[in-house]
User: What shape does this take?
Amino acid sequence: MPIILPASLDTLAAGTLRTNLKNTIDRGESVLLNGGDVEQVGQACLQVLVSAQQAAKEAKLVFRIEDPSDALTGMAQLAGLDLLLQPA
Amino acid sequence: MNTDEIQILFFQECEEGLAGMEQAFATIRDESHDPETINTIFRCVHSIKGGAGAFGHERLQAYTHEYETLLDLVRNETLTLDQPLLDTILAAFDMLADHVAAARDTEEAPADVDMLERLKQAAVVDQNAADAAEPADIAVPEAQAAPAGDDGFDDLMAMLGGPAEAPEPVAETAPADWNLRVRPARNAFDNGSEPLLLLRELARLGATTQQVDLDDLPPLASLDAECSYLTWTISVPESVEEDDIRSVFEFTDGYTLELTRGADAPSAQEEDLPTAESHPAAQESDDKPQPSASQPASAPEAEIDSAPTAPTPPKSEPAKSAPAKPTKLVAANQTIRVDLDKLDKLVNLVGELVITQAMLAQQLSDHDLAGIPELGDLDLLTRDLQESTMAIRAQPMNTVFSRVPRIIRELEGETGKRVRLEVEGEMTEVDKTVVERIGEPLTHLIRNAVDHGLESTERRVAAGKPEEGVVKLSAAHHSGRIVITVSDDGGGINRKRVRERAVERGIIQPDAAMSDEEIDNLIFAPGFSTAEQVSSVSGRGVGMDVVRRNIQALGGRIGIQSREGVGSSFSLSLPLTLAVLDGMIVTVGKQTYVIPLSHIVESLRPNEHNVSELGDGAAMLDVRGSYVPLHRIASQLNIDNAETNPREAVLIVVDGDHGLAALMVDSIEDQRQVVVKSLEANYRAINGLAGATILGDGQVALILDVDMLTARRFAGAAPAQTLEMAA
Assistant: This one.
């Protein structure tokens, strides 16, 4: 079951996102995220997602953001983080 | 410096920008403008827009975008600046000031729908005309920096959420494009700041992100979610001006920028944006093991190798960077911003020094050492130090005057009169406190001049005057004071009407014999108004009274000169500083008082023929044929054991709001500079006293309020009252 990312991924949301993703990876579970609801994204959460993507890769776990919203796609492109949306 | 402090700086610069725009508009109105004038206006708006975007003031940002679009069409001469367009631009400017104020005060932004539509219409009309007339506009490159038809300027939410307005697919970094490497400070998210907004601004300029550097990004386990770790390499089209790129980061704190043109190597261009945090941030990254960050100077290429640009001959670096950096340094050294509290503390300390110096002089004098040269030197140095310190607080009157054109424009709309504003001496400097507190009285005088002073257009034409009335605003230094004059070429004070109204209101007796000057001064009486109807402009009958009181509270005086049919002139005479004054030290009974030297005309000891008693304690002094009222300070302030016989006393002739008058004191002790201590702040306001000071012998002396003391008998409104003493 993918984790549904919240609509607002601003700086305030970054800490919680990091904790959730870390726990998922620590449990050895694949990171399956659904980005369809995301309306707002900031750099802080993008960093967390990239770091989680790297951590998942090291742990040989799947990291995938499904159905990214236009907002998420646009900001990832703006930040040069297109790879984030590609399957690991 | 944190984001709040930078935002304060932003709003200060907004104020300066608005003042600069107002000046530019005045130049346009005088028809003495050139293309640079429009450029100045455009740059101000552009700068405000940039800051608004950085701080998330989306309404202000959206508004400035439309405004900027129109101004851009004017500056690239797609649109001719005719009167209707100038009116639109001026009206938009007034609303811009409202927008800035609303953003600053975190209030609701003004209703700008109509104005935005007006701006769009003006731009559309222009564009159509331009399309018809000039199919190929030469000034295209500049317009590209701020596309006129860019209606994708969405709000902040969309900025955070939506993709960048698909920038024109910029050609793969052409050799002449800008290479920008941006590293936000570690604390770049503080106070809600969002670095991606700046990338978004760059995208609007046509920039594309070439690469993101993840070298600093820690593993998820050790990542601090509230720190910034990314560094971007961005390509910006060559057509974008360097200033426009840098202005995107104008209000950032601690960002590291490397901006190079084309194939230049960026090492010599590296620039930590000025901030205290920038150094720790740089240090922090230096501590990390990444080789690219640890050798910023010796191995610049390692840090920039991600940029898809060709290597550069090293010699070109100093040649490119040299002209820019010294310019910035010089500019930075010319002015600094200082916390006002620090300045006030300095002023207080200098005040204490002046007092201590006076005490030292007193002690030395007691030991017959008053003549030692070092004391004179100390006196001079103290005075110089005091004057220099007060000069730091000085501000040009322009900060107040710059608001007047808008008031005039609004009044033109409200009254239907046509008004031309003439301003002189706007760079005259005066203490910050005076600048801050003069605004309200000045506004009222301007409103009064337009509403009451200037006649209607029909009356002016009938009187053979130009349709356009003139309101003149001037400031000048005069005898150690600043004199601000508001004059108009209207009908002058209708003294017959003023007198009738004063009788109606019970302010004067019907048979009172009054000079023209005295009748003119009646308009300052509480509750006096000759306006037939209360209007939104003036006529509430409280204004001029309040104006006078406000001016007096600043230690100032207000005078009127008026000629019927020719116009009126209100002169405000204010001290340059409220902190120190030159005073004459006098005694009355056993009390010591200070009379401000600026009021004193002369002092004399009368003979038996000079003083005429009028009964009821009133007396007149004959000063070489002119009779002036004599005020007995002792009875006014209820002081015991004072001299009661004028012929045995000393009479100080003073000039105040109510003309010449003589103050009766026992003796003159000294003349010196005194530091004014507020009674209001330390005790409470007392009628008749302007403040207090500490003399060289340590005793407290009260400073007489000459205007108040001489007004009592002049107005004849109240008998001498017992005044409570502060000391």
In short: The longest helix of chain B spans residues 3-29. Chain B touches chain A through 33 residues (CB under 8 Å). Chain B is about 45% helix and 20% strand. Residues 315 and 628 of chain B are 82 Å apart (CA to CA).
